[in-house]
UniProtKB/TrEMBL annotation:
Protein's recorded name: EGF-like domain-containing protein
Signal peptide (UniProt feature, chain positions): 1-23
Keywords per UniProt: Disulfide bond, EGF-like domain, Repeat, Signal
Its membrane topology: Single-pass membrane protein
Matches recorded under CDD domains: EGF_CA (cd00054)
Residue intervals of the EGF-like domain: 283-320
PANTHER family cross-referenced by the UniProt entry: OSJNBA0016N04.9 PROTEIN
InterPro entries according to UniProt: EGF, EGF-like_Ca-bd_dom, EGF-type_Asp/Asn_hydroxyl_site, EGF_Ca-bd_CS, WAK_GUB
Length: 424
C-alpha cells in the first residue's frame, strides 16, 4: 500500500524518487569451529570434519593433515562435500608375475568404519588379461572378470566391456570388505604386454581404459566416493533429541539415501553455507545475480528469499513467472494525457478542465482528495499518511522555486513517511 501511494503522487507531480542500490559484499562462509583450521593445503575440511583435537564432531571425522587420511581408515581424502559424500583414494589390489612366479601383490582389507562406499557412485573395476577381481563382503563374493581369455590383444581402447577391462556395480552398505585381483591362467606374466592384474573401486565415469594400463597402473590412483552422515538415527528421531540434534538454524534434516544409520543437514532454500555450524547457513542475496531471481524490474532481498517490485506507475508482482507489471490507473491517465497533448500544468482553464497537477492541488485544498483517489489506494486508517504525502507533493509544485523543497529534503521526508508505514 505504501509503495502504491508513493507511486501515485510522485507520478502526478512528475517528481522522480531517487533509488538507492544496496551495496553487497562477498560472503566468505565459515567452515570450521572457532579457532580451528579448515584447510589442509588447498583442501577444505568443513565441520563436522576437523583437523585438531576438539575441532571435529567425533573421532571418525578427524583428518590427518599430513597424510590426508581419515582417522584409522585407509582412505586418502581428495575433497569433502557438505552434500554427504567425499572423494578420496582407496587401496588397489594387484598381482604381478614374471614367466615363472609371482613377483608382488596386495589384497587389501578395507574398513571405512561409519562411512559407506557409495553403491550408486562407484564401480568395481578389473584391468588385465585372464584376470578376475573378487570382493568379499558379509560372506558374499562379488566377481568382476575379463571375459576375453586367449584373445586379450583384441581389446577396445577407451571402454570397459570385458576385453582387458571390466566394471560391475558394488553392493550397498559396504564398509568392511576385501578386494582380490587374481589371474585365471598361467599366461599372465608370459605376455610381453600384460604381466599384472589389477582391481580397484573407482567413481563412475572417472576411469578410461587404455591398453598401456596393463603394465602401468601401480603408480596411479583413482577417485572413489564414500557416503557420510552424522548421528545414529533418522531425522524423525534425531529431532526429538534436541540436545544432540546437529542441524543448526536455517537448515533442514535429510535422511540418509545410502541406508546409513544417520542423517545429513542442508541449508534451507534461500540460504547457503555450513548447516552444521551455529549461524552457518547465511542468506543468499538473490538480487546480486540476475540468474538467481525472476524480477522484471527491481529485486529486493529478504531473509531466505526476495521480493520483486514494479517501477513508478506500475503495479503487479513484478515477476517473469507471475503477473508482471502493468500500468496503474493513475499512470494510464498521465500517459494518455501526455499522448493526447493535454497539459499537466494549466492555470487558465476552468476547474472542470484543470491540468493534472492543479486538479490535485484543488482537490487537496477542498478536502476531497480521498474521494478522487483510486480505490486500490484507499484503506481505513490511512488518511493521515495520504495527507502527509499529499502535502509534500503540493510543496514540490510551488510556482516559486525557492519555496520548493530540495530533492534531499524530499527523500528524507519520504523515508520518514515510509517508516511510519512500517509501524502502521
Amino acid at each position: 500500500m505504501m509503495t502504491m501511494l508513493l507511486q501515485h503522487f510522485t507520478l502526478l507531480i512528475l517528481v522522480m524518487i531517487l533509488s538507492s542500490t544496496k551495496a553487497t559484499e562477498a560472503h566468505g562462509f565459515v567452515q570450521s569451529l572457532s579457532g580451528c583450521s579448515d584447510k589442509c593445503g588447498n583442501i577444505t575440511i568443513p565441520y563436522p570434519f576437523g583437523i585438531e583435537k576438539g575441532c571435529y564432531l567425533e573421532k571418525n571425522f578427524q583428518v590427518n593433515c599430513t597424510t590426508l587420511m581419515l582417522h584409522d581408515i585407509t582412505f586418502k581424502v581428495i575433497d569433502i562435500s557438505l552434500d554427504g559424500f567425499m572423494h578420496g583414494v582407496l587401496p588397489m589390489a594387484y598381482e604381478c608375475y614374471n614367466s615363472t612366479h609371482k613377483l608382488s601383490g596386495l589384497d587389501p582389507i578395507i574398513w571405512t568404519r561409519r562411512f559407506y562406499v557409495s553403491s550408486t557412485m562407484n564401480l568395481l573395476t578389473t584391468v588385465g588379461c585372464d584376470t578376475r577381481a573378487d570382493m568379499s563382503f558379509n560372506g558374499i563374493d562379488y566377481v568382476a572378470g575379463s571375459t576375453s581369455r586367449t584373445n586379450c590383444h583384441m581389446v577396445y581402447e577407451g571402454i570397459c566391456v570385458g576385453h582387458g577391462c571390466r566394471q560391475i556395480p558394488i553392493p550397498p552398505k559396504m564398509s568392511y570388505f576385501q578386494i582380490r585381483s587374481q589371474r585365471t591362467t598361467e599366461n599372465v606374466g608370459k605376455w610381453s604386454f600384460n604381466n599384472c592384474s589389477y582391481a580397484f573401486i573407482v567413481q563412475r565415469d572417472r576411469y578410461t581404459f587404455h591398453k598401456t594400463d596393463f603394465d602401468d597402473m601401480l603408480n596411479r590412483s583413482f577417485p572413489a566416493v564414500l557416503d557420510w552422515t552424522v548421528g545414529h538415527t533418522d531425522c524423525k528421531h534425531a529431532k526429538e533429541d534436541k540436545y544432540n540434534y546437529i542441524c543448526k538454524e536455517n537448515s533442514v534434516c535429510i535422511d540418509s539415501y545410502s541406508g546409513n544409520n544417520g542423517y545429513n543437514c542442508r541449508c534451507a532454500p534461500g540460504y547457503q553455507g555450513n548447516p552444521y555450524l551455529q549461524n552457518g547457513c547465511q542468506d543468499i542475496d538473490e538480487c546480486e545475480a540476475r540468474s538467481l531471481n525472476v524480477c522484471i524490474y527491481e529485486c529486493i532481498n529478504t531473509n531466505g528469499s526476495y521480493n520483486c517490485t514494479c517501477p513508478l506507475g506500475k503495479s503487479g508482482d513484478g515477476r517473469e513467472d507471475g503477473s508482471g507489471c502493468s500500468y496503474m490507473e493513475a499512470a494510464k491517465s498521465l500517459r494518455n494525457t501526455l499522448y493526447s497533448g493535454r497539459k499537466v500544468f494549466s492555470y487558465h482553464e476552468s476547474e472542470n478542465d484543470l491540468g493534472l497537477a492543479m486538479f490535485f492541488v484543488s482537490s487537496l485544498e477542498r478536502g476531497c482528495l480521498i474521494q478522487v483517489l483510486d480505490d486500490q489506494l484507499k484503506k481505513d486508517g490511512m488518511n493521515e499518511h495520504i495527507n502527509n504525502i499529499a502535502m509534500l507533493a503540493k510543496a514540490c509544485i510551488e510556482l516559486e522555486g525557492k519555496k520548493r523543497p530540495s530533492m534531499n529534503a524530499v527523500k528524507e521526508e519520504l523515508n520518514q513517511i515510509r517508516q511510519s508505514f512500517i509501524n502502521f
